[in-house]
Design goal:
The chain is mainly beta. It folds into 2 domains: 185 residues, Jelly Rolls, CATH 2.60.120; 213 residues, Galactose-binding domain-like (Jelly Rolls, Sandwich), CATH 2.60.120. Helix content is 7%, strand content 45%. The strands form 4 sheets. Strands 1, 3, 4, 6, 9, 10, 12, 13, 16 and 17 form a 10-stranded mixed beta sheet that branches. Strand 18 and strand 19 form a beta hairpin. The longest helix has 33 residues. It is elongated, with a radius of gyration of 28 Å. The protein starts with 5 loop residues before the first helix and ends in an 8-residue tail after the last strand.
Length: 447
């Protein structure tokens, strides 16, 4: 045949070579496109312990962490019942924080994957996949202009977060203790709740979406708590150093002739969790007692907030205590010899008798410290619980649980003011948020 049709054979080889060339060119082009625009690289994942310890379970080992540690993919994280930690995902190219998750006590989660596009020319986004979650966490996502998608999987369903914002996720069990329930609280962002059956529903801002194992229903509800006092000091926009949210005011005092403490709105563009936080500090040598206090009157300067109708109260606070070893901050161990000089203390002033409120005026205190000393007391005269030891230079989230049980339940409760203050000889602390909220009975108007 080759002798009879030499031209046909030649053309067959030419056409075959051309087809191979086209396929090879297309393959190289697709591979180049995928490499430049689609191929991912991992984000940097790190765990920082705010309090206590965290257990890391890798495919090959188990590690107990008390401070900070890098997280590899396919690592399980278990937070002890008396601990708390922050899981941070950082863009390896820009160094920017993409998302920060505060894992509350008793939480567990597995980091499956965390990626970004290889090159900045790609329009691809950040993708983070987390699984096996149980407990309570808050998410603060800050992806900038790049697209973002984080999935958090549980037995009852998966939360899919797709924008910058703040979210609270939690699991619990039904009254029979059998079905796991998953709650997604969208505090300002874009969130979806997806069931194992692939049914999905968007959770709008200020709403809570809930799902349970064995159910094909997604329930929506308003925020569980009616806001009484909000002190969101953090801000995405620059603010004046001493500009405070409406109603808040700060003052400083010290022993006679000594320098007072100072306050400002702290700005650190490298750390979104710090930006706009309230900074309270006093630094010097051979100083005696000083104090910087910031307070709010929830019902106005001459009013009283009637908290009696609320069946529960909850105090939420984000804080960070800074330690500078060369300056010996703080230089008062724990909270002082009377447990009244914590680097940060929260105070609620209240009464049960409006006919003569000043004579019946009482105070509730709770403190936080980083320098432990077993010889010092940890409960002050007006404290219901012991002060809390937290790690220095790390954000810590305080959630009081039901605070109403720490006040008399058989008497009215009127709140005059709420204050947060730094106390001692030297101190350096930051406050990101203070929120006091109340839950009205279901039958109460406005609940």
């Amino acid at each position: 045949m080759s002798r009879r049709y030499p031209q046909a054979i030649a053309w067959l080889f030419v056409l075959s070579g051309f087809v191979c060339f086209c396929l090879l060119s297309a393959g190289i082009g697709w591979a180049a496109y995928w490499f430049v625009f689609e191929s991912p690289v991992p984000l940097s994942a790190n765990i920082t312990v705010s309090r206590g310890s965290v257990r890391l379970q890798t495919p090959n080992d188990q590690i107990i962490v008390n401070n900070a540690h890098r997280i590899d993919m396919q690592t399980g994280i278990t937070v002890d019942d008396e601990s708390q930690s922050i899981l941070t995902f950082v863009d390896t190219k820009s160094g920017d924080t993409v998302a920060a998750l505060t894992l509350m006590a008793g939480s567990h989660i597995t980091v499956r994957s965390a990626e970004r596009p290889r090159f900045n020319v790609s329009r691809g986004g950040y993708t983070i996949a987390l699984a096996d979650y149980a407990g309570q966490l808050t998410v603060n996502s800050t992806p900038g202009t790049r697209a973002f998608q984080m999935s958090v999987g549980t037995q009852a369903g998966t939360a899919q977060l797709t924008a910058a914002g703040r979210y609270t996720l939690s699991t619990d069990h039904d009254l029979n203790g059998q079905a796991q329930q998953f709650h997604v609280f969208n505090q300002g962002g874009v969130a979806w709740l997806i069931l194992p059956t692939m049914r999905e529903q968007q959770v709008w801002p200020n709403k809570i979406g809930s799902a349970a194992t064995g159910s094909d229903l997604i329930e929506m509800a308003d925020s569980a708590y009616t806001l009484l006092i909000s002190g969101l000091f953090q801000s995405s926009q620059p603010v004046a150093d001493q500009a405070l949210p409406d109603g808040w005011q700060c003052v400083s005092g010290a022993d006679s002739g000594e320098p007072s403490g100072q306050f400002e709105r702290y700005h650190d563009a490298q750390d979104p969790a710090d930006y706009g936080a309230l900074h309270l500090w006093r630094i010097g040598s051979q100083l005696h007692h000083g104090e910087t206090s910031c307070l709010i009157y929830p019902a106005g300067r001459d009013g009283w907030l009637n908290a009696t109708p609320y069946q529960s109260l909850r105090l939420h606070m984000r804080l960070k205590l800074t330690t500078k070893p060369e300056l010996h901050i703080p230089d008062v161990p724990a909270c002082g010899i009377q447990a009244s000089e914590c680097p940060i203390m929260i105070e609620i002033t209240w009464t049960s008798d409006l006919s003569n409120p000043q004579s019946a005026l009482q105070q509730w205190h709770h403190g936080f410290y980083s320098l432990a000393d077993a010889t010092y007391p940890l409960t002050c005269d007006t404290c219901r619980l012991a002060h809390e030891h937290v790690n220095s230079d790390v954000w810590y989230v305080y959630d009081s649980g039901d605070l109403r049980s720490q006040f008399p339940t058989d008497k009215p409760l009127y709140i005059e003011q709420l204050s947060v203050y730094a106390s001692g000889h030297q101190y350096d602390a930051r406050i990101g948020e203070i929120t006091l909220s109340g839950d009205l009975p279901a039958s109460s108007p406005g609940s």
